[in-house]
């Protein structure tokens, strides 16, 4: 059996049904004329706030322009008339037979490192009976992908302080969504929004996200190439939120290397790249990823030392963290808060650390009681002494949180 032939006959993808529900016919806003490009026009729609009770209200916006297209639909940028704030409006065709999973998930998330759903509304499409769901989200100007590309084009590497600030906030967002039972399933630099001034990072695009339930199968054909965990490449359908940790490890490695760590156009190519670094997985590791492949003969390759994977001047703590994220065995990977507690991020916990511009670091220790109850044994590491008066724990006068 060769690797190519065996892997080309992966288990057939299972399908994920979201429960069919009778969707109560929502208020349908007419097609906003200015979506056709008339940016000076004011559009008013009846929209429901993303959080809180279902109390539809009128929302007006202007200065509309298209900022993104994808298989899902279109993303516009607009300015809210009331607050003058910029927002992003993600417009997706709504399948009337199903509840929109992205909407259900976004409505229950509330975290400073996750793009916030401000409102949502429905609009009619060009064709009869077409209904579009419009998600009105925080607008954040840049992505980690574009920031990294900017440094690459300038033949330089992203300053390590940014790698720390961005990755820490990504892990914080993952700790929160995983505590809510949600797996993002598409962590990649393009889905990490950043404000270049403040260095605040917000995780976006929950279009592939899912509430994972133990014992219920999930499709393996999610997550973008280069960032797919090996268990997904092996066609596992019983995976856990640890697939997001693998993807985050790939993002960290990419920021350190200046290029993707496991490139490859097919699952086989990616697996070959992974094996070149981690070595051939043991029988036990294969069993942990997908038991159907334990009998399979892999080319026997020794692991490449992590220090040799990266450039000579890469901080050892960064390499050590990478090695604890990019593990074959899903359960052996660090949890998001274990990652946040890692020595690589110690500089962020020093009281005098600043951004290169001289600005303060973004808020990194404003943990909610929800966050502090995930792995309480880590709280004394996560919250440096100088920040202890600012956390939710002291705000609520709660004991035993550190």
Account of the 3D structure:
29% of the residues lie in helices and 17% in strands. By secondary structure, it is an alpha+beta fold. The protein folds into two domains: 28-138, Phosphorylase Kinase, domain 1, CATH 3.30.200; 142-349, Transferase(Phosphotransferase), domain 1. The chain starts with a helix and ends in a 7-residue tail after the last helix. Belongs to the protein kinase superfamily. CMGC Ser/Thr protein kinase family. GSK-3 subfamily. Its EC number is 2.7.11.26. Keywords: ATP-binding, Kinase, Nucleotide-binding, Serine/threonine-protein kinase, Transferase. It catalyses: L-threonyl-[tau protein] + ATP = O-phospho-L-threonyl-[tau protein] + ADP + H(+); L-seryl-[tau protein] + ATP = O-phospho-L-seryl-[tau protein] + ADP + H(+).
> How many DSSP E strands?
12
Computed over alpha carbons, the radius of gyration is 22 Å
CATH architecture of the largest domain: Orthogonal Bundle
Order of helices and strands: HEEEEEHEEEHHEEEEHHHHHHHHHH
In terms of DSSP E residues, the strand content is: 15-25%
Indicate the overall shape. globular
Give the count of structural domains.
2
The termini sit apart by 54 Å
Number of helical regions = 14
By CATH's scheme, which homologous superfamily of the largest domain applies?
Transferase(Phosphotransferase) domain 1
Provide the residue-averaged pLDDT: 91
According to CATH, the fold-level topology of the largest domain is Transferase(Phosphotransferase), domain 1
Widest sheet, order of strands: 2-3-4-5-7-6
Assigned CATH class of the largest domain:
Mainly Alpha
Low-pLDDT ranges: 1-15, 17-24
- Describe the main β-sheet briefly: 6 strands, antiparallel, barrel
Helix content: 25-40%
Structural class: alpha+beta
